[in-house]
Amino acid sequence: MRKIRKAVFPVAGLGTRFLPATKAIPKEMLTVVDRPVIQYVVDEARQAGIEHLIFVTGRNKGVIEDYFDIQVELVNTLTERGKEAELSLLDSLQPKPGTASFTRQQAPLGLGHAVWCARDLVGGEPFALLLPDMIMQAEQGCMKKMVELYEETGGNILSVEQCDPAETHKYGIVGRAEDVGTGFRIDGMVEKPKAAEAPSNFFISGRYILQPEIFDILETQEKGAGNEIQLTDGMLKLAARQDFYGYHFTGRTFDCGSKEGFIEANVAFALWRPDIREKVYDNLQELIENVEPKFAAAAE
Length: 300
Ligand code: G1P
Prior knowledge:
CATH architecture of the largest domain: Alpha-Beta Complex
Shape: globular
Bound molecules: 1-O-phosphono-alpha-D-glucopyranose
Number of strands: 13
C-alpha cells in the first residue's frame, strides 16, 4: 500500500461571507487566536505524516504563498534582537524547501474542478484533501486517524459527522453500510440533498483520502448541485469501482466559512491554549454575565 505523502488544500474560494475583510485578505488568512485558519489545517496534515503541501489558489491569494515562505528581513530583525522564542516558532512552522507547491484554479467552477487542477502536482498516487473552511480540534488529528484507517482498509476514506437531519442540504451526505474498524463502508453519496432524499444524516466534513483515479473522472465531470463541478458526483462514480469508507470523527469541527463558526473557533482555540485560557475564560464569563440580562430585557 502506498503511503499518503501529499495533501491538497483548495484555497481559491472568494469568501463572500467575510466581506469586507476578504476584499484584501483571503479568508484562509483570517486569524484564529494568533495564526491563520490555513495553518491549523496544514498542522493537521503534517501530524498525519504529510510531506508535500499542494495549494490550489486563485486570484488575490498571493499572500498565502508569502505566508509559507521565509521572510528574510523579519528573521534578520528577530535574530538581531535575540527573539529566540519567536524564531523557533517560525522555524517549527516553516515548510522545508521544495515541499509546498501552488497552482491556480483559473475560474470558480466548483470543488471538483479545484481538485482536478492539482492532478499533475499529485501524480499517480493516493492523496489527502483538506478543505480549509473546516478546522478541527482533537488530541489526535482527524487526518491522522483517517490515515490509520486507510492503512487497514485501503480504498478511499471520507471524514463524516452527523448533522441535524433538517440541514442535509448544506453538505455532501453519505449512506452508511456495515461498520469497518473505526468507520463504516459507504454505500451512497449525494451532494446537498433535501432531507427526504438524504441517505442518512452523516455529512462529509471536509477531509478525504482519495485514489488518483478520481482525476480522470473529474476531467469530464458535468456540473451538478449549485451549477458547479462537484467532487461528490465524481466520488460517486469512483465508488462503482473502488471502496469508500467513512471515518466518524468525534472531536470538534468549526466551520470557519461561517461567521458563527469562525468566532466559535476563536473562543475554543483560545480556551485550548495554556498561555491565555484563564484570562480568556474569566473575561468571557464576565462578558456573558453582563450581556445575558440585556438579551432578557430585549425579549420582554
Ligand atoms: C463542500 C463539499 C461537501 C461537504 C462540505 C463540507 O461543500 O462539496 O460535500 O460536505 O464541503 O464543508 P461546500 O461547503 O464547498 O459547499
